[in-house]
Structure formats: C-alpha cells, structure tokens
Design a protein that fits this description.
The complex is a heterodimer of chains A (413) and B (451).
Chain A lengths: L3 H28 L7 H12 L1 H10 L5 H22 L4 H4 L1 H32 L6 H19 L5 H28 L6 H24 L15 E3 L7 E4 L2 E4 L3 E4 H23 L1 H11 L1 H6 L4 H23 L10 H15 L4 H21 L3 H4 L3 H15 L10
Helix pairs in contact in A: 1-2, 1-3, 1-4, 2-3, 2-4, 6-10, 6-13, 6-14, 6-15, 7-8, 7-9, 7-13, 7-14, 8-9, 8-13, 10-11, 10-13, 11-13, 14-15, 14-17, 15-17
Chain B lengths: L1 H23 L1 H7 L5 H6 L18 E7 L7 H20 L8 E7 L4 H15 L3 E4 L3 H14 L3 E3 L6 H4 L5 E3 L4 H19 L5 E7 L4 H14 L3 E7 L7 H9 L4 E4 L3 H13 L9 E3 L6 H7 L7 E5 L8 H14 L6 H20 L4 H9 L3 E3 L2 E3 L9 H4 L14 E5 L11 E4 L15
Parallel strand pairs in B: 1-2, 1-3, 4-5, 6-7, 6-8, 8-9, 9-10
Antiparallel strand pairs in B: 10-13, 11-12, 13-14
Chain lengths: 413, 451
C-alpha cells in the first residue's frame, strides 16, 4: 500500500465518529423523548459518514431516523472507504483493474446467492420452531453426498436434476423423522428446558450425521462433475473479445470471468428461491407457515396445526440446506466435515439479516458473499488475503451485534 | 405416554445406528487399532528372536504408535494410504513371528492434520497406550508439535512425511526422519523449474506459489521463493488455511498475475479444490504449467476431484516403480491386493518403513526400552521399501563434527525425488511419465501455454 496513512486516517475517522454517534445520539433522542429504536445504529452510520458535519445537525434538529437516511449514510461510508482505499493503493487490482473488480463482484454475488439459500433454511426453522439447528451444516453435507453418489456411483449418467431431487427427498425425510421423534416433545411441553434440549439434540444429530456418513463413505473427498457444461462458443470467433465459453468457464469482454459450476449453482439456487417464495406467499400451507412464525397461538385459533407446521418447517429447512449442498458439490471437493464452516457462515448470515427474517437471510447471504470476495480480492498482502476468509464473516457478526443486534430485518427482541 | 414413546423411538434409533455402524464400517474397526494377526503369526516361522524372547505369541504385545491424518482438515487421502501401509507393516511383522517373539500391535491415531490434536494423540499413545516408539506422521505442523511430546517422554518417533527442517534441526535424540527435508525438496523444485526454462525453452519469468499457513507450507514457500529469486525468477505467494474450499477470489488474483507457472504447496483437499477451480477459471494445468501437490498421486481421488488436472507436474518422493527393490515390490503387491491401487504412494511407503525401522531397532537392541531403541536407530542399517536407510548424522557423528547443517540430524539422507507428469486424462499414477531428472526420464515434459 503506497499511501497507507490515507486509508488509516479514513478508517480512524469512520470509527471515531461512528462510535461517538452511536453512543451520544440515543441519549440525545431519549432526552428529547423521541423514538430511539434506530438512534444507536442510525447515529453510528450518520456519524461515520460525515463526522461532525452530520452529527451536529442530527443532534440539533433530531429528525426521525428513517431507513432512507440510514441507507444514504451507509452509501457515503462505503464511498469514503472505497475512495480512501483507492487513493492509498492506486495499483491495487481492485482499483486499477475493472474486469477484476467485476469478476470478484460476480463471484461474490454468485456464492452469496447460495449462502442465502442455505441460510434461508436455518432462518425458516428458527422462525417457526424457535430453534437454532446445529445440524444445518450436516444437511448441507448430505445434500452434496447424495447428489454425488446418485450421479457418479449409483446411477452414473443420470440427470443431475434427478440427483438433486433425490438429495432434496433424503434431507427432507431425515428432517421429518428427526423433528417427529426428537423435537415434537418440545411443542407438547414434555421437555422442561426446551432451549438447552434443542441445542443438545441438534448437536447430537450433527455428530451422528457427520460420523455416520464418514463410516459409510470414508473421508476421502469426492466431487460431482459439472452439471451442465457450457458449449464451446467464441464471439466473434477471430478475437474472442465479446464472449468466450468453454465447458468450465464463461468470459465476457475478455475480462469478466464466471466458472461454470458456480454459475449453474447460482441459477439453481435462484430457481429454488423463486419456488420457495411462491410456496410461502401463494399457497395455503405457505401462508400457514408464515402465520405460525408471526403468532403461534393466533394461527392455532384459525385452525392451523402448529405442530404440523413445525415438522414441515424443519423438513423444509433441512431440504434447503441439502439443496445448497447439492448445488455446490460440483464446485467444491466434498467431505463429511464440509458442513462445519458452511453452518458457521449461515449463523452469521441469519444474525446479520435478522433472526427469522427470510428476506434478511437472503440479503445477508449476498452481503457475506460480497465481503468475502472483496476481502480476498482487495487485501494487498497476497499471503494474508485468503487466510482471512473465515474472519470476514466474524467481523460482520461483531459489527452487527454492536450496532444492530436485531439484524437488518429482525424483530425487536 | 408421549415421553415413553419418544424414549422408545430414541432407543430404537440408537440401536439401528449401532447395528448399521457395526455392519457398514469395517474401516473404523481397523483405524483405531491393528490387532495382531495371531493365526498367521502362529503359522509363520519366527525369525531371529532376541535372547530373552519367547515364541509364545500370546505374550503381551509390543505396541508401536502410528500417526496419520484420517479426517478433515487433514489430508485424508494421504492419511488413509499411510494407514493401509502401516497395517500391512503390522501384519508382516506378526506373520514373521512378531518382535522378539512377541506380537506387534500398531495403534493408529487420527491427527486431523492439526498440531493440537497431534499433541493430544501422541500424549495418549505414550501415556495411555504405552507405545515404545511411534511412526507415520504427515503434516509438518503436527510433527513440530509432536516432537516436543516425544522429547518430554523420551519416546522415539520416526517421521515418515513431515518435511519441516526444524523437526530435525533442533537435534532431539528422540526424533528421526525418513521424509525429505523441505529445503531440499524446494531445491529440487527450483532445479526442475530452471531446467524447464534453460533446457526446454519455456518462458519463465514469474511463478505463483499457492501454499498453506502451516509449518510445512510457510517455510517451503519461503525457501522456494528465495531459490527462484536466485535463479532470476519472480515469485508471488498466496497462502491459505488448510481445508480452504473456496478459491474464487484467489484464483482471480492468480490470473491477474499472469504467471508462467503455478506451484501448489497446499496439501490435501485444498490442493484439489484450488487446482480444479483454477482449471474452471482457465488457468489450470491444461492452460498454465502447474506443479500439483504430491497428494495428486492418489490418482483415483485426484481424477474424481480434479477432472481437468491433466498435464499436472507432480513431485514424487522415492524411486520410479521400475527401480523398486524387493521390499518395495512385495509391499506394492500386498498394498495393491488390499486397496486395488496399482502403485503405492511415497508417503505410504515411508510410513511402512517407519514402522519396520522401529521394529528392527527393537530387535537389534533386544529391548523395548526407548533409550535402547534410540541407540539402535542411530546405528541402524535397514533395507526398507525406500532403499537402505541409515541415520549417519547422530550423537557419535554430530553435525558439527560432520560439517553439515543441523537439519541433517537423524535424517535419512537419500530419499530420491523425481518429477512426474500426468500426460493423459484419467491416467493412473503408476503410468505417469517421469520427466525429471534426466537420469530417470521416461518421456519429455508436455509444456502447455507456450505461444
């Protein structure tokens, strides 16, 4: 970094004024008997954006802190961050190479969509059952394993869609059986300490699924072939500058590159997301699920059986994790332990998006995907950039817990 | 009533689980502990029992510990190969009548490739299982941590596949190694790269190194970078944690560097993930000359995980198969029977030798006292699958006296290193072309990406 001081001072500005705004603004709003639910987060981002030039007017005029105001402030903070980084390190690939930036953004969005799909399952379970499933990563792992074995071992040559369908069925059924046997007693009041019970029993399921799979398949990594390889295309053929497709990759304008497995995984995830939204918002059962998530007792009064919704939610959540794994088994080498980091990332995403919020989970997935891509691509020290990957989501988690513990779309606790 | 029903279903589920695990997991049975092959041993003649030995194989077994990464984030592919070879060693020893007439029990533990786990399992082997020596070992970070436990307890370890120089350069009496030194391997790598440039006309101005943040990866990358620099070749290093899955961002950065060659020092599944993701992005072994990690020699797993891995150069420790000695050929035959593979991985071969070395040291010393075993190891001349193994730099011929670097302490000096190349997709490791050095060359290298 050529001018590290510029970036350092900008960060210091953001942190100092952000912290001051976050601490002082709620006190001023409280003293004026104003709404303070957004005062801490709003004050922090508004302070981080323009420092005293925005905080003083905010404290004097004390307007209602709307989502729009926060959005503008966040955009300014991101602008200051990016501008100072560009000034500090003008030769960085993230500054000097537009194609690289777009490729990184595309990769971040693509992987973020899949993160979002996985986190949707976790947040669906939490919103209905009030349980954080620690076995979510193992359903993800099983989804990938079933897809691999279906397409490569048991029925070689079978359509990947059939293999994915099989993984959906298997994870749904495991989720169904588990919920009926181990989680149903929570709903009927048979368990004295349901929160602790849920943690322990889902942890138990996680260990069981992981080691059971290892016993059956061994711990040697496996990987499915590309589901739908691209055809070989080069437009225009003589220069290849507009579009170049190989079975494993598409390159646009000789600069933006998207690997085939990620592209197909993201498309599958988007299709499933659309289907899930249709199910939740257009079908009676989906509406019943949402009703139970909003008010369990009121839903029961209208004739909805909350216990059935519990079973359905857990099974669907498991299936969504399995589907994420099924999409990604053509991207990554697959092991029985592959679900552990994926589950940790999902927890971060649902906290970021707001526990129980479906749009929040999806948006959270995108944000985590983009932050990881930006961190990996832009950190100047090549020996550190990828090593910090696990830390990026933890930084996000820390910031969210500090600034907005309810997450982006979470309900007040 | 409901609680009873839940309890019933829980017990039923657990019972089914136990039955299924018992039925479906023969590997899990053999991973933890190798029972002495008493029946074979009874039938086999006993060779050269020591004075106080007895032919009674029902005696208390001599326990030898064995380290291997058998679950992630360790290099499981490598660990399973090592486990299979060390189990063969146990069976061979027992078939020969054991050691000093006593059966041999090789207790294999899973290091997971993690130093803290390695420390814990070595403690367990020594203080709970009562092993008299330990073989195996794959990850350098595990070796670096485990050597301290061995020293504290005075138990010898013969490391099979831990390359970090400091493992031997600290000059602990208890630590022996038959794997090559990391710095020596780096030298071979760079000699090969120079040979590609100077003898084969390959354009080679910049090399990208992908390494892992471990006691193996970091020094190996530093050594390689320094040697490349000396050869007038620039190097850019990217490092990742072991077990890293998603390399999308790093692959884009590597691509932006426009390297003339990529060297992968990350081990295990991370090396598979990087190689294939690089191939998806158009900078794989078929596009840019790539030196893949040695775990790529497990060809079945390699081709499943890296279908676009053709043209990978792979460093191979040990001689080409055509130069195998009798011990190696017998080992390969048995290994092939058990695993279905055509050849044996170098680290599996070294693991086998590490167990056999300890066994011979016990025989030579006629004792299971660790101090006597260490004395015997220092003076050993063992004909192993890797060739004749000795440790010429030792307490009676210290590095200072011999005028060599301390890294040669208790170090097997002659592990052969060749560079092989997959020159056809789906090729078996045994059929790979030996491209370097000239003396072993079977085919010229296929150099891709040259315009």
């Amino acid at each position: 970094m050529e001018n590290a001081a510029i970036f350092g001072w900008a960060l210091l500005w953001i942190l100092f004024w952000g912290a001051l705004g976050g601490v002082v603004t709620p006190r001023i709003y409280a003293r004026k008997d104003l709404e303070i639910s957004q005062a801490s987060f709003g004050g922090a981002v508004i302070g981080a954006a323009l420092g005293p030039f925005s905080l003083v007017p905010l404290w004097i005029a004390s307007p209602k802190i709307t989502g729009r105001l926060i959005g503008i402030a966040i955009a300014i903070v991101i602008g200051i961050f990016v501008a100072s980084f560009a000034l500090a390190d003008p030769d960085n690939l993230c500054v000097a190479n537009g194609g690289f930036v777009i490729s990184q953004l595309t990769n971040g969005i693509v992987i973020g969509i899949i993160y979002g799909l996985m986190a949707l399952g976790l947040t669906l379970i939490f919103s209905i059952l009030g349980v954080v499933s620690f076995a979510h990563g193992e359903f993800y792992m099983i989804g990938g394993m079933v897809t691999y074995f279906m397409s490569a071992v048991w029925l070689p040559g079978v359509s990947p869609l059939v293999a994915i369908l099989a993984s959906c069925i298997v994870t749904f059924v495991i989720g169904y059986i588990f919920e009926r046997i181990f989680l149903r007693p929570m709903g009927s009041g048979e368990i004295e300490r349901p929160t602790e019970y849920a943690i322990l029993v889902t942890f138990g399921l996680a260990f069981f699924l992981q080691y059971f799979t290892q016993a059956l398949t061994s711990a040697v990594p496996v990987k499915a072939q590309r589901f739908f390889p691209f055809p070989r295309v080069e437009l225009p053929a003589e220069s290849g500058t507009l579009l170049k497709m190989t079975p494993g990759n598409v390159t646009i304008f000789d600069a933006i590159s998207v690997p085939n497995p990620r592209f197909t995984a993201a498309v599958l995830a988007l299709i499933m997301l659309a289907a899930l939204l249709w199910f939740l918002y257009r079908t009676w059962v989906g509406k019943a699920l949402r009703a139970v998530s909003q008010d369990r007792q009121a839903a029961a009064v209208t004739g909805i059986n909350p216990n059935s919704m519990n079973t359905l939610a857990f099974s669907m959540g498991a299936m969504l994790a399995g589907l994420s794994g099924a999409s990604l088994v053509q991207v990554f080498s697959w092991l029985p332990q592959v679900g552990i980091p994926a589950a940790a990332r999902s927890f971060v995403i649902i906290v970021l998006g707001g526990m129980g919020s479906l749009p929040g989970a999806f948006l959270g997935g995108l944000i985590v995907g983009l932050v990881e891509a930006a961190g990996t691509g832009c950190i100047p020290d090549a020996t550190r950039a990828a090593a910090y990957i696990p830390a990026y989501s933890m930084v996000i988690l820390t910031l969210v817990l500090l600034l907005k513990p309810t997450g982006l779309f979470g309900r007040e606790l | 009533m409901n609680r009873k029903r839940t309890l019933f279903w829980s017990i039923l589920a657990l019972t089914i689980l136990a039955l299924v695990l018992t039925a479906c997991a023969p590997q899990a049975e053999t991973v933890g502990e190798a029972e002495p092959a008493a029946e074979e041993a009874a039938a086999a003649p006993t060779e050269a029992p020591a004075e106080e030995s007895s032919d009674d194989m029902s005696m208390e077994p001599i326990k030898i510990g064995a380290l291997a990464p058998l679950s992630a984030p360790g290099a499981v592919v490598g660990g399973e190969a090592m486990r299979d070879a060390m189990l063969i060693a146990a069976d061979v020893l027992n078939a020969r009548g054991g050691i000093m007439g006593r059966p041999v029990e090789v207790i294999i533990v899973d290091t997971e490739g993690l130093p803290e786990r390695g420390t814990a399992v070595v403690e367990r082997l020594i203080n709970q299982d009562g092993v008299v020596g330990i073989g195996g070992g794959y990850h350098s970070s595990v070796g670096v941590a485990a050597k301290e436990v061995a020293r504290d307890n005075g138990i010898p370890i013969v490391f099979a596949e831990t390359w970090n120089d400091t493992i031997t350069s600290v000059q602990y009496d208890e630590i022996f190694r038959i794997a090559p030194l990391s710095s020596e391997v780096s030298a071979v790598d760079v000699n090969f790269i120079q040979w590609l440039r100077d003898e084969n006309g390959m354009k080679l101005d910049k090399v990208v190194i992908l390494t892992e943040n471990t006691d193996y990866g970091i020094p190996a990358a530093e050594n390689t970078t320094a040697l490349l620099d000396g050869a007038g070749i620039a190097a850019v290093t990217f490092s990742v944690d072991i077990g890293t899955q998603d390399f999308a961002g790093i692959v884009e950065r590597v691509k932006a560097e426009s390297p003339d060659m990529i060297v992968i020092l990350a081990t295990g599944e991370a090396s598979y993930n990087f190689t294939q993701q690089a191939a998806d992005a158009g900078i794989g072994p078929q596009d840019v000359p790539t030196m893949c990690n040695q775990v790529s020699l497990v060809s079945d797993a390699f081709w499943v995980n890296v279908p676009d891995g053709n043209n990978c150069f792979v460093r191979r420790i040990g001689l080409p198969q055509k130069l195998y000695n009798d011990v190696a050929q017998e080992l390969v035959a048995e290994y092939s029977d058990r695993t279905g593979k055509d050849d044996i991985e170098s680290y599996a071969m070294a693991s086998y030798d590490s167990i056999m070395l300890i066994a011979q040291a016990i025989e030579d010393s006629g004792s299971t006292d660790p101090g006597d075993i260490i004395d015997a190891l220092e003076n050993i001349n063992h004909m192993g699958a890797l060739g004749p193994i000795t440790f010429p730099i030792n307490r009676s011929n210290t590095p200072e006296q011999a005028g060599v670097d301390p890294k040669w302490w208790h170090q097997f000096p002659d592990p052969a290193i060749t560079i092989v190349q997959y020159q056809e997709a789906g090729q078996d490791a045994v059929d790979t072309a030996v491209v370097y050095p000239d003396v072993y060359q079977t085919d010229p290298p296929v150099i891709v990406g040259q315009e």
